[in-house]
Specification:
The protein has 406 residues and is mainly β. It has helices spanning 76-83, 126-129, 273-286, 329-332, 360-368, and strands at residues 10-15, 27-30, 66-67, 87-94, 97-109, 119-124, 134-138, 144-153, 158-164, 179-180, 191-196, 205-220, 223-230, 242-245, 251-260, 268-272, 302-309, 316-324, 340-346, 349-352, 378-387, 390-399.
Length: 406
């Protein structure tokens, strides 16, 4: 057995595989409130979303409006009067504090057929509600509602939540946005507006710009995404808000990242309507006995760091799990935060960590991010876990499992 004394083991670096807020230059980051302390994983709190999630129906069958392009010019003031009430402020309480973001109402329903709208369905970003024990939605008029989780997809960064009316809090102040029918048909140079809750205190803020690029491939904190690029101003708290076509008022994207750099401006991104609409539809469709989920989707749910034992030239380096998502494949397979990783095998491919270099974690991230892995694939991890006075080597054998957030 390999044994390492814990007293001499120190974590010196960490690289994330999930959506987290960072504050360094030249890195694409999520645009939720920069004041939040941490929004990465639910490790150590297996019931972190139990209050947030509550089954509201066996199945959800709602109609969502979709509109196409128009050659007719619309007065911007008139368009904003119509679409601004569809964008809401979102405040999520986690074990780390309260984070802020935005969301877009995509449906208002009368679920009990009494002639009164009683339920609103809202699309936002996964990272806005990640780890939430409770979430509050605030309308443009300042009315607050408790929200419940319908489903969430970390890979696309899309989540759906819902709110309900009450005697003192009807949904009459809200409007439902209409999705743009095909974001692939958008043109560079089209006028757009972003509506959201910048800094977590300026709900309903509108910024105007153009579409700068269609289907821009961007690496967002280790994840490859194909996004709409715009120069409309985006700030912390805008995440989950809407990017709208000025002409039609159609929702063309869900704002999710901006470029964190003092040397560049106007580099902001949104999840295209084609992607967001598809994910939202699947989350609603699969909602029922459990939260909505994307069939066939998985998430390894681990963040790795470098650790070392010893001193000076006698130091030995290891890869350790710095954070782990309780809903991810590695956690379900028995791995825990603090475990040392010696090797990982997925199918016939093996990644050995017998020697550590400056780019080992980058290579490990790339190994786990390879295309082609699927639910049911066998995984074997050789790892060390601290037991009593030393680290003891174990093998974990499991299969890649369906990811259902919360």
């Amino acid at each position: 057995m390999n044994r390492i004394k814990k007293a001499a083991l120190c974590v010196i670096a960490a690289v994330t595989l999930s959506f987290t807020a960072v504050s360094c230059g030249n890195v694409f980051v999520n645009s939720a409130d920069s004041a939040r302390t941490n929004e990465s994983s639910n490790a150590g709190n297996e019931n972190s979303s139990s209050e947030f999630y509550e089954k509201v129906a066996d199945k959800i069958d709602i109609s969502v409006s979709v509109i196409g392009a128009s050659d007719e010019q619309s007065d911007l003031v008139t368009t904003l009067e119509r679409i601004r009430p569809s964008v809401v402020e979102i405040y999520s309480t986690t074990s780390k504090g309260v984070s802020s973001g935005s969301g877009v109402v995509i449906n208002l329903s009368d679920t009990d057929d009494n002639g009164v709208t009683d339920t609103g369905f809202i699309v936002t970003c996964h990272h806005v509600i990640d780890g939430a024990t409770s979430t509050t939605v605030k309308s443009i008029e300042g009315v607050e509602y408790s929200a419940r989780l319908i489903g969430s997809d970390p890979k696309s960064d899309i989540a759906v939540i819902c709110i309900n009316s009450s005697i003192n809090k009807p949904l009459t102040e809200l409007s439902a946005a209409s999705w743009y029918e095909d974001s692939d048909k958008l043109k560079v140079g089209m006028d757009v507006v972003a509506i959201g809750n910048p800094l977590g205190i300026l709900g309903g803020t509108v910024s105007k710009g153009i579409i700068s690029s269609i289907n821009r491939d961007v690496l967002v904190e280790g994840k490859s995404m194909s996004l709409l690029q715009t120069d409309a101003a985006i700030n912390g708290g805008n995440s989950g808000g809407g990017l709208f076509d000025v002409n039609t008022g159609a929702l063309i994207g869900i704002v999710n990242v901006g470029y964190a750099s003092y040397t560049a401006e106007g580099l902001n991104f949104a999840i295209p309507s084609n992607v967001a609409f598809d994910i939202e539809t699947q989350l609603l469709k699969t909602y029922g006995e459990t939260k909505g989920y994307i069939a066939g989707n998985y998430d390894f749910g681990v963040e790795f760091g470098l650790a070392y034992s010893g001193f000076g030239f006698s130091s030995k380096y290891y890869v350790t799990i710095s954070e782990i998502d309780v809903y991810g494949t590695f956690y379900k397979g028995g791995l825990r935060s603090g475990d040392l990783i010696y090797s990982i095998q997925i199918g016939d491919e093996i990644f050995s960590l017998s020697s550590i270099s400056s780019n080992t974690i980058t290579k490990l991230d790339a190994f786990l991010a390879k295309a082609g892995y699927k639910i049911g694939d066998k995984v074997t991890v050789s790892y060390g876990r601290y037991e009593v006075n030393s680290y003891v080597t174990h093998n974990a054998e499991f299969e890649i499992a369906q990811y259902i957030y919360g």
